[in-house]
Amino acid sequence: MKKFDGFCLFSDMDGTLITDQYEIPRKNIDALRYFTGNGGRFALATGRGLHPTTVELQKVLPVNLPCVMLNGGLIYDFKQRQSLNAAVLPAGAAQSLVDTLLAHYPTHSIAVWCPDHRVELGVSADWMLPSQTGKLSSVTDPWCKLVVHH
């Protein structure tokens, strides 16, 4: 039996595992490799979706469990490259939600998150991750998360 058998560690990314410069400190990588090398199980638990930056960052980590993405809206297995579960919001519901939000908060930006991309609507915001700026028609079902940013 190894030192960390039976232990699971889930880590957030932004402000926890990575720096403001979107880099993972070497000490974090080394600690996680020690943990998983001694039987521990590790996964990400983040509000991020499957954007290229997230996919690239997780490649340097010893992820050995499916990850919790989109604040729980998506469970994704990076090793198998497949979604295991997606808690999707009702098909077509984005239209009424976005219309209502923009009517009440016209100076805000709204991001609709789909499992593999994000569409930013309304006023431009300085988001940390790549997005598609567009019209509501570019939001495809399924979608898992809606964020209002001021």
Question: In percent, how much strand structure appears in the residues?
Answer: 25-35%
Number of strands: 9
Shape: elongated
- Record the strand order, biggest sheet: 8-7-6-9
Structural class: alpha/beta
User: How are helices and strands ordered from N to C?
Assistant: EHEHEEEHEEEE
Instruction: Give the termini separation.
Output: 50 Å
Biggest sheet details? 4 strands, mixed
Put simply, the count of helices is: 3
**pLDDT under 50 segments (min length 5)?**
127-132
- As a whole number of angstroms, the C-alpha radius of gyration is 17 Å
Helix content: 10-25%
Arithmetic mean pLDDT: 84
Would you give an account of this structure?
With about 150 residues, this protein is of the alpha/beta class. It is about 20% helix and about 25% strand. The protein is built from 3 helices and 9 strands. The protein has helices at about 25-35, 50-60, 95-105, and strands at about 10, 40-45, 65-70, 75, 80-85, 110-115, 115-120, 130-135, 145-150. The strands form 3 sheets. Strands 8-7-6-9 form a 4-stranded mixed beta sheet, covered by helices on one side. A 3-stranded antiparallel beta sheet has the order 3-4-5, with no helix packed on it. The radius of gyration is 17 Å and the shape is elongated. Residues about 125-130 have low confidence and may be disordered.
